Amino acid sequence: QLLYSVPEDREPGSSVGDLAKDLGLEVRSLAARNLRLVSEGGQRHFQVDLAAGVLLLDSRLDREALCGQSPTCSLHLQLVMENPLQLHRVEVDVLDVNDNAPQFPKPEVVLEITEVANPGTRLPLEVAEDPDMGSNSISTYELSPSEHFALSINVRGDGVKMPEIVLEKALDREKVAVHHLTLTALDGGNPVKSGTARVTIHVLDANDNPPVCDPPISKVHLEENVPVGTLVTKLNVTDLDEGPNGDVEYSFKTSNNAPGKFTKLFSLDPRTGEIRTKALLDYEESSAYEIAVRARDKGSPAMEGHCHLRVELIDINDNSPEIMLTSLSSPVQEDATPGTVIALIGVKDNDSGDNGQVRLQIAKELPFKLVSSFKEHFSLVTNGPLDREKASGYNITVRAVDSGSPQRATQKTFYLRIADVNDNAPNFSSPFDTAHVQENSFPGTSVFSVSASDPDEGSNAKLSYSILDNGMQDVPISTYFRIDQDNGTIYTMRALDYEQDKVFQVPVEVKDAGSPALSSTAVVHVFVLDENDNAPTIVYPSVPKGSAFHQTIPVLAEPGYLVTKIVAVDADSGHNAWLSYQLQETAEVLPFQVERRSGEIRVAQALRESEDPHRLVVEVRDNGTPSLSASVVIVISPEENSVQDFAKSLDLPKSSPQDTNLTLYLIISLVSISLV
């Protein structure tokens, strides 16, 4: 809180204080932090020179117009700066300048006094008025020299000096019927200013006892907001005279050019002297009223006395606190550190004492707390971690409660939005997935769709998918598959061959668009489904295409005699690799048969002597759909001296590199089938 003072009547543009120096800031930072001035009263009296960092007057100040007769005159300002958000309170005291001379309500005062008045009789005079305050207000009064009269100054309860003319020497109306005096009011300024009034005193006969108020100065305490018509007091006035000279009438004593405000709030019964309220009294508008009453008898000449009553109001708790949201930073990042200022809140209660003491409260379960900045100003700061995924915003209700009895409360609710930061990595629904695809499918065939979610929002939740190369295949995995980066659908890049690759591990990465980007991975096992795309291959007997295999058997071979065995393999697997052997049908009936599963060719019936060679076509067919086949031509020649060498007949010829590969394929097929 910064305190400055400035005399009234300074020229606009005059410097009030060096803000940059007093705030401990560099001048060039004021504009960058968007320093701005907020007047609490709504009127603009000051401005900020951002180039020089000083507070300047925007208009000429008149202390009397701003604060009236208040002993202090302060203007309250607020300085708001951003990045970070800060609020500073500035209080400027407006100093009084002796720019007003004392002035009497009337330029001429006419008084009457009976000639029988005793020395010491007092004649009250009207008080001069000076709008200035303190030492610049009225300091004393002076009366022109007189043989019969002197000046006496009394001090009222509120500090106002009241002049009275005191009779020092007995009067003789027959010698001097009228006395002319000059009353001068002097203030305490430098230089001293003064005002005068002519006092004319007429000396009268007869009614020689004025009304007397007992006590002449009294004080009454009254609660504010009492009903209209409430009795304040009844004046106690006595007049020792009798008859009309002792019959007293009451009236308010006011100045013609400045009628007392109390006449609008209080009524006076001219006969009984009862003072009552005639309007609601408000402590916040004025805490006390000074009432001057004139008591005048009906004698001739009439005499009067003066009563002074001070009415002091007792404050009651009739004003609820006011909550002012000066500034709100919304949205706030969810990673804001504890202690981050969210809002600046001001509070005001027009009551006084305990009735004006205000406490601010918010719900305890909220991750925020209130910190007192300075008098009647608070900062709302974070008191714990924020998580947008749990709460995207908060309805914050600030409750202000005063200390009066009964208490009065006010609440204000505002919404604070939590801004997202990229603090959550995307997650797949499953870290491992399984997919199947038929071999020989066209490039671009959809294989599988992975799915991931991200609890963040906006760009932090915008996901893109990609395939990582794990190096498990000889060829990069990206040559086999691609992924739609938007929806996570995996497609083939080319036709797959089950006999070459039976299973693929496709590592998929999902990455959000935050900064920095977060990611996670999952693995999709893609199994290639076999298709019957390989015909059986006859391993034994191995004969060139278009040739026949020649085999001799004894003429006397009996039924069941093993002639030879056909050995075939199929690169496919499962049903597609189940082979069956059969003889192609011919016009003649052959004395041989082939075992369907083993491929063994045996003698089915006894052979005749001098039997001609027999030509057999053995067909090997797989179990796929559609079925594929291969065939071999075998020529069997019966001979008398032929002896079957079973070992030789079953021996396979020396393997060639191609036969070795076929055997390897057969082993791989059997192992794959077992694994599946």
TrEMBL record:
InterPro entries from the UniProt entry: Cadherin-like_dom, Cadherin-like_sf, Cadherin_CS, Cadherin_N, Protocadherin/Cadherin-CA
Coiled coil regions, renumbered to chain: none
Listed GO biological process terms: homophilic cell adhesion via plasma membrane adhesion molecules
Pfam families for the chain: Cadherin, Cadherin_2
UniProt keyword terms in alphabetical order: Calcium, Cell adhesion, Cell membrane, Glycoprotein, Membrane, Repeat, Signal, Transmembrane, Transmembrane helix
GO molecular function, one term: calcium ion binding
Cadherin domain sequence ranges: 5-104, 105-213, 214-323, 324-428, 429-538, 557-655
Subcellular location: Cell membrane
GO cellular component, one term: plasma membrane
SUPFAM superfamilies with a match to the protein in the record: Cadherin-like (SSF49313)
Membrane topology, record value: Single-pass type I membrane protein
CDD domains linked: Cadherin_repeat
PANTHER family, A to Z: CADHERIN-87A, PROTOCADHERIN GAMMA-C3
Summary of the function given for this chain in its UniProt record: Potential calcium-dependent cell-adhesion protein. May be involved in the establishment and maintenance of specific neuronal connections in the brain.
Protein name: PCDGM protein
